[in-house]
Structures are given as C-alpha cells and as structure tokens.
Design goal:
two-stranded antiparallel ribbon; globular; disordered N terminus; Rossmann fold; single chain; alpha/beta
Length: 249
C-alpha cells in the first residue's frame, strides 16, 4: 500500500464521521483508497508521515471492527482515535481538547431488580467491566484501559491555542447522554471528563493486539452550558491538532 514509506508502518488515524476525517483526507498524498462495507481506508502520507485514515462509523462495534481490520491490513505502529465528544464536567467548553490517559466503559451496566410497573432509574445502575463472568462467577467493577504513555506525552506537548488542552479519562458507550443527573453520575462513578462512542472499544482492541493507542477528543457540546449546542465544526480544529501531532511522532 502507498501508506508505507521505506517499509515504515503507518500511523493509523481513526474517526467515526466524515466531518471528523475530511480535512485529513484532503491532506493525504499518494492516496491508496479502499472500502469494506461502510468502513473507508485511505493510505498515503501527510507531511511526509505514512498514515492510514479510517472512517469507522459511530458506535463501539463499528469502531472495534474497523480497528481490527486496520491492524490486520496495515500493521500500524500506533492507533490514534480522534473526533468530537460531549463534556462531563462544567469546566470544559466547546473547543477544549481532552487527551486520554485512559478509556473507560460507560455502557456496561447491571440494573437492580424491579417488578413490573416500578419504572427505571439509571442513577441506581452499577458500572461493570466487560471481564465480568469471563473466567469465574464474580462481577468486576468497571476498569479503564490506560493510553500509551509515549503517545500521551507527545500529544501533551503539541501547542494548542483554540482552547484548553487537558488530560483525563474518556468514557465510551453506545449512548448519547443528555441528562445532567446521568452525566454527573457517570463522572462521579468513573472520573470521566467527556464521552464518546468509540474510544474504549479501540483501547480494547489495541490492548489485545499490543498496539500503542491514544484518543484525542475535542468538546463539541456541553449540557452544563445550554448555549453550547452540538458544533461539528470543532472536528476541523481537532484534525488540525492531529496533523500537528503527526509531525512529532
């Protein structure tokens, strides 16, 4: 593939949506393009760095499947997931970037037993780990997967003037939380700074395949600030940050 230069494995950059990939795709040179289903792979170079850009689609299953295919086909030296996220703390605003030091599952839950007609209360749910019942009959509390320290340190040194650049836990699940009580509950239980629908599944795949990984998320909306409605143009700013990061890898 054209994504290799002097047999150097590429940097894999994943994003869920067209809006989160378009600027990077426009910057690629020596394009070698392919599709599998709705997964899109664009291999080449950006500013001389071998890359493969992957549009995954939204959600944990999509991200995991796309990541597995990327690792098998391109043998990347690292995987960087990037894109938009919703804030889990009031101190974060649109345009701030969260560099993950850990990805945490927010959708793997156990509910208390309730009879018919008793309703449901998400604030009483228990957060579990996907390893629950894997090798014994015990439940396991939710555990995070740490990001690769080398990539984290490099990303922290990239200049960023469009907002705050912070490091913290990114929570992931197949749910878009817009209830403040629920958002606060997730943050209090798991320590999340923001949420997306892909980071934890990417971290799982990379952990199993021993591939370095990092997630970089720009805040695109905040329920703490009603005026800060979803703004996908922030995805452009995030891609510019990733391009600057590429030159330092």
């Amino acid at each position: 593939m054209n994504g290799y230069m002097n047999n150097t494995p590429p940097v894999a950059i994943l994003g869920a949506l067209d809006a989160e990939m378009r600027l990077l795709e426009d910057a690629i040179e020596g394009l070698d393009y392919s599709e599998t289903g709705h997964f899109r792979f664009s291999a080449g170079t950006i500013d001389g760095v071998p890359v493969v850009l992957v549009r995954t689609g939204m959600g944990m299953a999509n991200a995991a499947a796309a990541c597995v295919m990327t690792i098998e086909r391109f043998n990347p030296n690292c995987v960087i997931l990037q894109g938009t996220a919703g804030a889990h703390v009031p101190d974060l605003h649109i345009g701030d970037i969260v560099i993950s030091n850990m990805a945490m599952p927010t959708h793997f839950v156990s509910t208390p037993s309730r009879p018919a007609g008793a309703g449901s209360n998400a604030l009483e749910w228990t957060y579990l780990s996907p390893t629950t019942f894997l090798d014994d009959n015990n439940t396991h509390a939710a555990e995070g997967i740490p990001a690769t320290i080398r990539l984290l340190n490099i990303a922290q040194d990239v200049p960023y003037a469009e907002g705050n650049l912070v490091t913290g836990i990114v929570g992931s699940g197949d749910i878009w939380n817009r209830e403040l009580d629920r958002i606060n509950n997730v943050h209090d239980a798991l320590g999340t700074l923001c949420e997306d629908m892909e980071s934890y599944s990417i971290a799982q795949v990379c952990q199993e395949c021993t591939v370095p990984w990092l997630s970089v998320r720009i805040i695109s909306n905040s329920e703490f600030h009603p005026e800060e409605e979803l703004d996908f143009t922030t995805a452009n700013t995030c891609q510019e940050f990733i391009r600057a990061l590429l030159t330092r890898l």
